[in-house]
Amino acid sequence: MTEDLKNRAVLLRSLHRPGEPLVLANAWDVASACLVAAAGAAAVATTSAGVAWSLGAPDGDRLDRGRAIDLVARVAAAVPVPVTADIETGFADTPEGVAGAVREVLAAGAVGVNLEDGASDGPALRDTDEQCARLRAARRAADEVGVPLVVNARVDTYLRQIGDPADRLAATLRRAAAYRAAGADVIFVPGVVDEPTIGALVAGIDAPLNVLAGPTAPPVPELARLGVARVSLGSSLAGAAYGLVRRATMEVLGSGTYTALAGGVPYPELNALVEQG
Prior knowledge:
This is Isocitrate lyase/phosphoenolpyruvate mutase family protein. The protein is of the alpha/beta class. The protein contains 11 helices and 8 strands.
């Protein structure tokens, strides 16, 4: 099992190539993960928000750790590609707790994690030293198991609009450098969609850069040109799916028609995908 995890982790790490980014359409359950893998994705990432919503909890460290990791295990068992898990702030208040969560994620079959530096109980970010301790704990836990876990350290300065906008880039680069030194492999800066800032982040961070994409972001080929190494859809794919649920329901309850249902995955195809997983 450890050798298989190690091989998957090595593969996941190799997929982070600046200018040739790993594109992640984040899944939230087994069926969505199977669809993503069947579409040709090189890896599957979970979205903490989508997972929480599908299990009846709000996002933001509100979902029970056991239920979240159980979902990761189900996804990892269902797809043939590496899985990286969004574990929010680590499901724990202490570095030791984060280490425990990482061990459970590895036991579940995932070979990558996202770790946020945003505090779950307010708009602020964790102290840099505190976040570095949590990242070091995650790295140690993986090293003890013998798996080169891909640690994606999220910097929420832009997402949460922290500090003076004029100083935000410099603050982000300082955090990124500290997180890299603490054991992060990839730096994730959500909330940035303008090309000059993305280019400055690529130039200023000594690690592969992950950006959060969506309708207002540059297309993947442009992000590749800028040197981005990982592109994530985050919770937007789950949101789009739930948007379809709302539109189809409003249509059938209103006009009584079913046009919103066009383009759905046929029952036999989806059933077979899940059965194969």
